[in-house]
Predict the 3D structure of the following.
Amino acid sequence: MSTPFRVAGHGRVDRSATLAFTFDGTAYTGHPGDTLASALLANGVHRVATGITYGRPRGIVAAGVEEPNALVQIEAPFPEPMLTATTVELYDGLVARGLGGRGRLAATPDPARYDAKHLHAELLVVGAGPAGLAAALTAAGTGARVVLLDSAPECGGSLLGTREHIDGRPAQEWVDAATRRLTAAPNVTLLTRTTAFGHYDDHLVLALEKRTDHLGAAAPRHLARQRVWRIRARQVVHATGATERPVAFDDNDRPGIMLASAARTYLHRYGVLVGRRATVFTTNDSAYDAALDLADAGVEVAAVVDARPTVPERLSRACAERGIPVHAGHVVTGTSGVDRVSRVHIAERDGRGARRHGVDCDVLLVSGGWNPAVALFSQARGTLRHDAGLATFVPGGPLAAVRTAGAADGLRTLGACLADGIAAATAALTALDIAVAPVPVPAADTELPHPALELWRVPSPRDGVDGAAQFVDLQRDALVSDVFRATGAGLRSVEHVKRYTTVGTAHDQGRTSGILASGIVAEALGTDVADLGTTSFRPPVQPVAFAAFAGRDRGDLFDPVRVTALHAWHQEHGALFEDIGQWKRPWYYPLPGETMDDAVRRECRAARTGVAMMDGSTLGKISVQGPDAGCFLDRLYTNVMSTLKPGRIRYGVLCGVDGMVLDDGTVLRVSDGEFLLTTTTGNAAKVLEWMEEWLQTEWPELRVHLTSVTEHWATIPLVGPRSRDVLAAVTDGLDVTADAFPFMSRRDTVIAGVEARVCRISFSGELAYEVNVPSWYATSVWQALYDAGRPLGITPYGTETMHVLRAEKAYPIIGQDTDGTVTPQDLGMSWVVSRKKKDFVGRRSFGRAENLRADRKQLVALLPVDGHTLLPEGAQIIATETIPAPPVPMLGHVTSSYRSAALERTFALALLRSGSERVGETLYVPLDGRTVAVTVAEPVLYDKEGARRDG
Amino acid sequence: MQLIPCPWCGPREETEFHYGGQAHVPHPEDPAALDDEQWARYVFFRDNPKGPFAERWAHTAGCRRWFNAVRDTASHAFLSVYPVGAPNPLGDGSRQGQEAGA
Amino acid sequence: MTRDARALPDHPDFLWRNADPKPSYDVVIVGGGGHGLATAYYLARNHGITNIAVLEKGWLAGGNMARNTTIIRSNYLWDESSGIYEHSLKLWETLAEELDHPILFSQRGVLNLAHNLQDVRDSKRRVYANQLNGIDAEWLEPDEVAKVCPIVNVSPDVRHPVHGATYQPRAGIAKHDYVAWGFARRADAYGIDLIQNCEVTGIDVSGGRVTGVRTTRGRIAAGKVALAAAGHTSVLAAMVGLRLPLQSHPLQALVSELLEPVHPTVVMSNAVHVYVSQAHKGELVMGAGIDSYNGYGQRGAFHIIERQMAAALELFPVFARAHLLRTWAGIVDTTPDASPIVGRTPIEDLYLNCGWGTGGFKATTGAGWAFAHTVATGEPHPTNAPFTLDRFTTGALVDEHGAAAVAH
């Protein structure tokens, strides 16, 4: 297959290999080293996309990341939306199509892997063009850790697309030597295909490395496709180059209209002629390089249209030598063509369209000057200043640890860029007290270009609305006339104009359009563009796939799962699990054929009538040690803990300073100087942090240490009237009688050869023990209890049964029966609030006006009049049997609701306004458009006397 | 992500730390002696300046110790760190404004 | 040229005068964001007060209004909240005609996902309360969630499975700039001065009564001063010695490139901590939680974005190769109970509208309406009566934390 626009003797693509690809359904070939754009141009394809708003044909404008037009959708090997053809490296089997401004996401999961790595360095150099290479070479010699990044597959930057000389030799030789030296240097990390996309606080620079994209379907599956590098450098040099900008004129969006430098890059880097007959339109010297290089490569340059009144002698002579007509003081006023530019209309700039004539051509190369790439520097909070000579914004000067170098600094000759790179690296390292030996500046062109003309647009010669066919932002299809409408609507800020017109909000982040828009706004308002400034440069500098940011934090690694030491046993015994915080807790253990209701009823019955056991290991456990531990706990818990005798246990409630219940649990006094307290599963980390905060910031004088021991202890509640029998069976000589081992006390014993702390605690109202053993032995102790209980029908139970049992006793679950607006008094637990203590955290809040209201919401039980009706948790409570028109006054809500085997009926707990006064009343719960009558009851429904606790 | 200079561990990444809000807001000696409004000031009202701010941080994923820092809330830059209990480097006048409506 | 039907509607040809300050106004509103502009508009429309200046330190609606994810919903738990947000939503429903300005209010519904059993309880509680408050809330089971939004991963095998969701069909999104500019245009038409690049540097108080403001463009006398400055409220209040229960935090958001329609509604998740919609042009718009520390920098830390991306992919695996185009941060002023403060201050004729945290955009209409009422009459509107500064003393908080940790 022929590629008619590939030219011999130019380019860095590997012509010994051929890559087949498909674009818009047509098969083409290219070579390794091509981008999709260069391969399409080599095949003579310019029209690659469609404008989003007006549907006009669009071509390739640039050769790099600044491309505003050539948006493509990758279809194979895996769909990826909205890439620019200029940044897609060609690979065999690539299937792509041009887009009309919107991409399409794959319907199937992305099979690729993504990851992230950290790097630390003294110096980070972003950009491996001439300035960046010079900077890195300078630093490499010092032994300091250096990181050098470049987006391209190889170093060289602009040198890859030009034909300059360094030290009298082709610049490529210098690039090759520099690359070799940097690759060999042990202190240098050189990352190609790596784009720095954000500069954050404390010089964290994030970069994306495209590791396997260029391999297409051949990419090894085990390699991360893309990698985010988190680079923390003490000094950063942004040698990010500059971007050429266009000039707006009528019909400036036709395929074949490109940046002049892009045409030059396609020739030198890819060996591609962008056309056969070119017109060049410029406001500055740089486009002449393109005209001359293209002419030398065999392109007929039909005209150079230079908006400046006079053309520098050197350039006009060079053009004359090649027979290129130069039209000084002229501008392009418009273009013709169907799918591609075929004619350019030019006129004298001052003549307002007079003596307009056409030039036939198949490409129009445009240069309106250069913008330093300052986005990263700006993100680092570098300031910008307007440079009248360059007609753009340039860095205002280095920061303490962030510098710019080369074209990013606004420099315009290769010699100056090389010198600036060396100077920037030297300054950066010197700031770190790293000695830098003087580095000779390689010899290169230092002849300054002639002054450029500031020209944002050419007024439309046509009748009608000025600028109605002049595109400022090609990707957003935003017109010069849109900018004028914005200013005409009263807008004065560039940010407003950006939002009104959407200029600069697209994929290319306004690289080619932003300053143009500012210039045109300035023109419309009659102000100076220097005063208008730019819009903000927001990260990322280039679009980055969501998956690259997610990295490895997907699926199970998104959030760690915590399981107890007994997890495998639960799985083997058919448990279903409930997520609580990060924990997996057994929810219930259905037997074959059982529904959840069946299983829970069976588990409840076992606990109330026989013996049952559960895994309570997820309870938070905090060891509080030190001579002032009791005093410390007294200040936090609502009740007194310091009076606890060693070996005794007390229930306690913690409130925030706002007096609302924060958490609850038991406090065991292990010894005079040691307490062990439990927290709810979900709040363990929060409570420990909160306690540390009080201890360290408020009462640092207290001699107390806090340690989480949650994972150290496995906790096994053994519950039910027969639990004593089971405990007796597994312990040797432990007196388990109620008198010898009273409620809320602890005994040490040995179970299955393991030292165990057994606490007589009940969260069900039944006789119950809580067996605590080191987690390491959890399974053998659990199994020993289970085996000993088998003859008594011991039944493992999960959180659901635990909830039913505790609700029958009105023990609240923090976070279910409370919501951050509930006090201990609201829960009917005034008994847990000490009247003796002068103060504890939150006490003062109990005295606020709102807390003293009699009609606070209080915890009650609700009994549906029909004992079979199960109220939904979360249901609201109203006073009337019929539901009035909204808003309906609500009295409270159902916090917990269950079927009770013990009560042989359904019941619920609720937070109810004036709840304790309403006991006995009938209220209503709206449900599916009708209401369910409920009777308000005292919260404790089962064993009100507490008779079952001792078995 | 910022580097936060933990006084005990040295500079560590922001994700290792927990923010604790304004520093030098002691729990009242005798809350019972305060009226509701004074108590509300302690519970809910904190300074919120744009500029240097003395605040508390905990190195929760490191040494688990609390410390104080002066940070510029406009630039987010840490200006100094110091131990709990040390005087406020911004002095007592750092509070923006007095109590309202007293 | 012919415009594509998918293109956004045109803006009106004229928006507002670029007014210069006069020496004196009946009402000076500090803050030219959505709330400030809506307040000015409703002061004129509902109360006939038009001698008003809206002072904006930067460019109009360039703060949080330009930086938010534009979710509009009213399915809040407490009566007080649903009162003001539902009033807002009703105003949104007629706002385009009211302002004669396209605001692209798209009532595409909002799903709030539940990922564990307690989420389900809390969600259903909110639905039951919403329904009794006349708000169109529903509970959806996972298969119904998938019908509303087919790209949500409702597989039970994921780390945080979707147990269901609350759904408010009337909720949706609007185009933030259009909203602000719609209010601005109509306020301007009433003769209200919208004054940009005018930063307030001091507030004059005499005998316990506010008399005017000092600005970078000179002193402006004012009969009443109304603060509507979101994250900068504390800084302004400090000028008169007023300390508020506010903390300012960075809140980040992001957009993708333009994509073909893929996401038909708005999805929010507390447990996985992300909220996502697809805007009119086609970009995915996302947000998550606030950065933890106080900050006025309009910049946040990147690990927040990384976490948000991971969360988004948990819920929407198809987003893997969507590209992040832009991130940014606003400054939100949060209160201890995640509810706003709208009302009088201890200083006479100085009024306060703040503390909207991450949820201010959706309240632009209702807050503007209620704040205008309060400023005009000196008394709160029924919808903002509960949101006093005094509630922090009495303890009558409106605690929306439990109901929506992500209160967007």
